[in-house]
């Protein structure tokens, strides 16, 4: 009686001995040892699909280069090429099973890729999985390569691809804030500094500021993307290119540029490039900048929507879920809150990257797995965070116009707009009177005979209060004591 497919195995052997591998698995003995050695994260590298695609692109480019320079049989090279293409197209990703956190500077990841692509190629050739006498994961699929140039290059290619989707989502979020800026362009409110009332502005200006800061981050991310374009293919173990044909580096670069669509270039010093991971630290820092600024925006959204009765209550965030198991009717700002937490995680990941970069020794940094995991996770979470913030929060924000109108009308901050016309001392005295008596600022100015009602109304128009229409005149010298009825002092 035949064994069930799930229990059938094949035997594979390496320098440490032999292991039984599930017959249907495309991975092999090196991957199996990694599964035993690194049960740490319980997250396979396949969670980062662009990393898997980056690995496949490197293997495909290498096969084409090796064929071109004549160090790999054309039939074998074509089989590897075809197998890698299937992975690039999204197939067999479930076979990339090694954990994202691993020892060995990424060797397990490289071998996982070698084994999967080799066994796919064997099937394409009508052979059994594990028939490495015909096509070898190391001698053929890994020809002219080392983990120490494949792995960092695959990370850089994968991150570059992942970054494109992040930037698309970032731009959509920026446009969502711009749409709200247009919608709220005529809504006056009180601006605040140090959480204290300052001067009037429009809610549209506030949301336009959110859009602008996200646009600046889009530019910074685009600029720093080029940090990832320098690769070290052809370096092999430490940058000396041992075991590699002298024409391989230029050939693999040309093919990888064509396959990935990225403007990649070879490092001028392969020894330095193989040991240095500073580009990852700089790129991670830019991600952190974006995350922290986005978190600040979410802080503002939570403050502006606080209440709804005993807080600022200027805007309403969409109600997404019940906010309490004990307080009926309570609704919390859960979408900004989750984005805040993404930012905290990105900041922590950036510190991890920094320490891992520092931890490198001599000709190699052994900690690229945690660098890759940290940055890929940051990009993934940020992209998802931006998406949920846009579709589940920003797009549905509404404004409490009556509340804002009442707050502006009773705010002494509006008197700042009148200082060019009545002077600072007089404005300060009237502001104090307004605070003590609760009287309307405009009425006090008119009653003091400092300006006509028509002039006050003109100067306190939304356009001028918000600075959209700046008109000032000479400042007359008016002492605080000259104001009729003032007994508050300057």
UniProtKB/TrEMBL annotation:
Keywords: Lyase. One of its GO terms (cellular component) is cytosol. CDD domains: Aspartase. It is an enzyme of class 4 (lyase). Residues 415-465 form the Fumarase C C-terminal domain. GO terms for biological process: aspartate metabolic process; tricarboxylic acid cycle. SUPFAM superfamilies: L-aspartase-like (SSF48557). InterPro entries: Aspartate_Ammonia-Lyase, Fumarase/histidase_N, Fumarase_C_C, Fumarate_lyase_CS, Fumarate_lyase_fam, Fumarate_lyase_N, L-Aspartase-like. Pfam families: FumaraseC_C, Lyase_1. Residues 18-348 form the Fumarate lyase N-terminal domain. This is Aspartate ammonia-lyase. The gene is aspA.
